[in-house]
Amino acid sequence: MIEYQIKGLVLDKTVVNEVDYSYVILTAEFGKVKAKAGSAGKITSKLAGHLEPGSFSSLRLVRKTHDSNLRLAEALLVDKVSGPEYMRTLDLINSIIPFEFPDEIFFDGVVNNLLSGRNDSNLILSLAGYDPKYAKCGICGSEKIVYFSKSNIIFLCQSCLSRSLRSVREKRSGESF
Ligand SMILES: [Zn+2]
Fold first, then answer.
1. How far is the CA of 159 from the centre of ligand 1 (A)?
2. Angstrom distance (rounded) from CA 115 to CA 120
3. Which of 9, 35, 93, 136 has its CA 20 to 30 A from that of 102?
């Protein structure tokens, strides 16, 4: 059994079945990871309040071997993200960051930004390497970008955005500028 005592920001929670939850957590040490909690309903309910999306918690993660899945053994809420539309920002982070790609600078920047209530999606995009300031439209190369598409991870200008909205009827799920 391998144990890790680390801090993490909970980005997402999925119900696997009535007693099992799967969490997506951003950590400095491992980057974005998936970890399960549950099986014993009692443990889950004890942990649940410390693992809502937006929780910044002190975590004890365990796994049997280096290859096996992470499980949450303990969680203790340290701080909680608040402010308007923070769920959208958590969702943005979740969609642009690959799994298990640790980046301490990104982690610190995101956590400081969100916990201070600033919730600046431009800053988060630039920390992730998608700086709107220097970005170009991913389709035509125009520098007049107005939109970041989370599903395609590209910036778009107004005319390419309108065209893609018309052609694929993509619902607006990205970030506008
Ligand atoms: Zn364009």
1. 6
2. 11
3. 136
pTM of the model: 0.86
Q: Would you list the domain boundaries of the chain?
A: 2-80, 98-176
Say how many Å lie between the CA of residue 61 and the centre of ligand 1: 44
Residue closest to 13 by CA, chosen among 36, 29, 31? 36
Q: What is the CATH number of domain 2-80?
A: 2.40.50.140
pLDDT tens digit at each of 177 positions of the chain: 999 999 999 999 998 887 788 999 999 999 999 999 876 455 667 788 899 999 999 999 999 998 889 999 999 999 999 877 899 999 999 999 999 999 999 999 999 999 998 888 889 999 998 888 889 999 999 999 999 988 888 999 999 999 888 876 556 667 777
150 Cα: distance to centroid of ligand 1 (angstroms): 16
Pick the closest to residue 176 from 154, 145, 151 (CA basis).
145
Parallel, antiparallel, or unpaired: how do β-strands 154-157 and 31-37 relate? unpaired
CA of 151 to the centre of ligand 1 (A): 16
